[in-house]
Amino acid sequence: MNIKEKIKTLLNENEVCLFMKGTPDAPQCGFSMAVSNVLKHLEVKFKGINVLEDENLRQGVKDFSDWPTIPQLYVKGEFIGGCDIVKEMFEKGELKEILKKKSLI
Amino acid sequence: MSMTAKEITDLIKESLPDATVEIKDLMGDNNHYSAKITSEKFNGKSKIEQHKLVYKSLKGKMGNELHALTITTEGK
User: Fold this and answer.
1) The pTM is what?
2) How many domains does chain A fold into?
3) Which residues of chain A have pLDDT under 50?
4) 3-class secondary structure, B32
5) How confident is the model over A28-48, as pLDDT tens digits?
6) Which superfamily, per CATH, for B5-74?
7) Fewer CB within a 10 Å sphere, N or C end of chain B?
8) Rounded to an integer, what distance in angstroms lies between the CA atom of residue A29 and that of residue A71?
């Protein structure tokens, strides 16, 4: 399976998917921690995928979304944004709305 | 590796000449910045598209020479 297919499979299997450095319980970067904490706060079930364990995945997900940084949040296969966008959407209440609309919370 | 605030501003303005760029060096280490960017080019675009325009203006330096840049974008 090539890396693009692997990412698609991950997105199909996990409705809320966060590509991050470290894990939700032990994040290894402040930006990854921030997004992980937002999702925990909203009490949405999500899958944290540690890109530090797989260099191919780390680069692959950047190519997949044409986005140069980690973390990256996906909801039902759709790229939502990185740390800045997710935080801004959370502060404006937009993230909660999206998750509610998609019946994830 | 790191970049100065001026280098970042110059790159952004090269791609977005009308942009207002406010840069803060968050830790004084030339490596962790925040940037507030306002440009007409952002009008009618999603946040993802707006941030991508900024990343493209940095010509691949984001995530490499430049470790951390917090971006806020707004249309004009």
Assistant:
1) 0.94
2) 1
3) none
4) strand
5) 999 999 999 999 999 999 999
6) BolA-like (3.30.300.90)
7) N
8) 9
Among chain B residues, the shortest Cα distance to A59 is held by B63
- Residue carrying the six token digits 């997949």: A64
B32 touches chain A (CB under 8 A): no
Confidence of residue B1 (pLDDT cuts 50, 70, 90): low
Whether the CA torsion B53, B43, B36, A70 is positive or negative: it is negative
Q: Which residues of A touch B (CB under 8 A)?
A: 31, 62, 66-69, 79, 81-85, 88-89
Closest by Cβ to A85, choosing from B51, B60, B68? B51
Query: How many Å apart are CA A39 and CA B55, to the nearest integer?
Result: 25
Element (H, E) at B19: none
